[in-house]
């Protein structure tokens, strides 16, 4: 091998190395982590309500989807909720998000960000924990049941794998408030960030409260940027009023 050819080979190798470094560090491409969404049972009796009444079931249920991500990206499962004063507004919001989360749509993986940033859903909390995740990751798929309020023999409770995990609470200003409202509740837009308050001001309207829930798998990438699965609609209930 002559010296000229040897020098050309060294120059080519250096150029190749530089190109590889630039490609990996400066191309600006983000790594996308695809998380699997929670699952609903085939026979899931989804909580549904009308403008005036709840249906026969008020207990939300789903199964976490953790076993598919053993790589440390997934950190847990969260449930997001929003409270509405106007039943039609809630239905329109649910329809929009369910349509957006259709996996046949190109942008379905943006459904969680739209739910949180645009539709202003907030993370459901429980009185027994301050974790960022309602159901922290364990690597095992588990059944979760949630009842937002007490009714007859049913307790307000979150259960994971049939074990009680605390009482669900609203997530506003660090307070742990129940999902019940006194008659003619004094709504404060600066405090009640989890409520969409639009519609009439008559007494019947003031005592109508509805909540809808979505579940999502959540993770963090190497820079601790939140990563979300597609969202899963869990249902809706009419919340009780105390007189």
Description of the structure:
- By secondary structure, the chain is of the alpha+beta class.
- Helices cover 21% and strands 28% of the residues.
- It has four helices and 16 strands.
- It has helices at residues 3-26, 87-100, 111-118, 203-206, and strands spanning 60-63, 74-84, 122-123, 125-126, 135-136, 143-147, 157-160, 163-164, 168-172, 175-177, 181-182, 195-196, 210-220, 226-228, 232-238, 241-242.
- The strands form four sheets. Strands 2, 3, 5, 12, 13, 14 and 15 form a seven-stranded mixed beta sheet that branches. The chain has a four-stranded antiparallel beta sheet with strand order 1-6-7-8, with no helix packed on it. A three-stranded antiparallel beta sheet has the order 4-9-10, with no helix packed on it.
- The protein is globular, with a radius of gyration of 24 Å.
- It starts with a helix and ends with a strand.
- Residues 5-26 have low confidence and may be disordered.
**What oligomeric state best describes the polypeptide chains here?**
single chain
Low-pLDDT parts are 5-26
Percent of residues in helices comes to: 10-25%
Q: Main sheet, how many strands, which sense, barrel?
A: 7 strands, mixed
Strand segment count: 16
Order of helices and strands: HEEHHEEEEEEEEEEHEEEE
**From the helix content, strand content and strand pairing, which structural class follows?**
alpha+beta
Termini separation: 95 Å
Number of helices: 4
What is the 3D form?
globular
Tell me the β content: 25-35%
The average pLDDT value, as a whole number, equals: 85
């Amino acid at each position: 091998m002559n010296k000229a050819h040897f020098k050309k080979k060294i120059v080519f190798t250096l150029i190749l190395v530089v190109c590889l470094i630039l490609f990996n560090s400066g191309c600006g491409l983000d790594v996308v982590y695809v998380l699997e969404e929670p699952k609903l049972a085939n026979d899931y009796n989804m909580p549904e309500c009308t403008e005036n009444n709840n249906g026969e079931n008020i207990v939300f249920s789903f199964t976490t989807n953790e076993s598919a991500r053993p790589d440390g990206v997934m950190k847990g499962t969260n449930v997001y909720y929003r409270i509405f004063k106007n039943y039609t507004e809630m239905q329109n919001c649910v329809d929009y998000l369910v349509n957006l989360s259709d996996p046949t749509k190109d942008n379905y993986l943006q459904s969680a960000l739209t739910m949180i940033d645009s539709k202003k859903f907030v993370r459901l909390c429980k009185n027994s924990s301050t974790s960022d995740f309602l159901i922290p990751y364990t690597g095992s798929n588990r059944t979760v049941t949630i009842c937002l309020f007490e009714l007859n023999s049913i307790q307000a409770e979150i259960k994971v794998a049939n074990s009680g995990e605390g009482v669900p609470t609203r997530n506003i200003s660090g307070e742990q408030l129940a999902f019940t409202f006194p008659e003619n509740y004094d709504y404060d837009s600066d405090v009640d960030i989890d409520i969409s308050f639009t519609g009439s001001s008559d007494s019947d309207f003031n005592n109508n409260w509805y909540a809808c829930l979505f579940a999502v798998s959540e993770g963090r990438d190497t820079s601790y940027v939140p990563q979300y699965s597609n969202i899963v609609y869990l249902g809706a209930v009419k919340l009780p009023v105390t007189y």
